[in-house]
């Protein structure tokens, strides 16, 4: 698989600089996809930054933050945090597992987000939780094949604004167990599939940029 995406870079590069930058993209995409799959545990999720200062994948908005947490639709999660002062904050739930194409399954934007003294809390699950589980939090319903929460935040002034902060907790996780052969196989398959998807966006999403660069 890595040989295939390297071949894609070699075939599409029009200069030595593009070749070197493209190989760097392969390495950075592999790091991101490892974090999304092999290193993730939907029963013990965390939000991590998909696009760091040194890892810009998929054409991100330079005024945006993109956080990701991997989840499962058969589990219940509580997201808590502080809103901050930025212009926009939104939570998008993606659904689809394995090699199934992902789709948007639920959305909670900052206009619908209930904040008390700048803080918020919402529960993510397929079935409506009991009142004691909600404990005053909002409920965001998701389908049984929910697989990730994507956070998008747009920041007008990184030096002067306070970004949102948040944590996620699985409320009904199983006891920690050693990873199984099947789980590792599925994680490696998902990693490979995602690497291929992200390293070929220039061919599948905006192929015209190969002949008409956005300059």
Write up what this structure looks like.
The chain has 215 residues and is α+β, with helices and mostly antiparallel strands. It has two domains: 1-41 and 182-214, no CATH class; 44-172, Jelly Rolls (Sandwich). It is built from five helices and ten strands. The chain has helices at residues 2-12, 16-36, 131-134, 181-199, 201-204; strands spanning 48-49, 64-70, 77-82, 88-95, 103-109, 115-116, 119-125, 138-141, 146-154, 165-170. The strands form two sheets. It has a five-stranded antiparallel β-sheet, with no helix packed on it. It is globular. It starts with a helix and ends in an 11-residue tail after the last helix.
Summarize the structure.
It is built from five helices and ten strands, in the order H-H-E-E-E-E-E-E-E-H-E-E-E-H-H. The protein has 215 residues and is α+β, with helices and mostly antiparallel strands.
List its traits.
5-stranded mixed sheet, Jelly Rolls, single chain, 27% helix, 5-stranded antiparallel sheet, 215 residues, alpha+beta, 2 domains
């Amino acid at each position: 698989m890595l040989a295939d995406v390297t071949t894609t870079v070699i075939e599409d590069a029009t200069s030595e600089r593009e070749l070197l930058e493209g190989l760097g993209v392969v390495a950075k995409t592999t790091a991101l996809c490892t974090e999304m799959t092999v290193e993730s545990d939907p029963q013990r999720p965390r939000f991590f930054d998909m696009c760091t200062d040194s890892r810009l994948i998929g054409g991100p908005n330079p005024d945006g933050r993109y956080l990701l947490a991997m989840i499962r639709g058969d589990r219940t999660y509580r997201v808590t945090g502080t809103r901050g002062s930025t212009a926009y904050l939104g939570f998008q739930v993606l659904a689809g597992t394995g090699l199934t194409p992902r789709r948007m399954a639920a959305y909670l934007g900052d206009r619908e987000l209930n904040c008390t003294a700048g803080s918020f809390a919402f529960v993510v699950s397929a079935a409506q939780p009991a009142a004691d589980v909600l404990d005053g939090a909002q409920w965001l319903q998701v389908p049984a094949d929910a697989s990730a929460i994507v956070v998008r935040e747009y920041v007008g002034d990184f030096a002067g604004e306070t970004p949102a902060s948040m944590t996620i907790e699985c409320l009904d996780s199983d006891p920690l167990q050693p990873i199984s052969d099947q789980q590792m196989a599925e994680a490696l398959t998902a990693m490979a599939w995602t690497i291929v998807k992200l390293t070929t966006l220039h061919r599948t999403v905006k192929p015209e940029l190969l002949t008409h660069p956005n300059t």
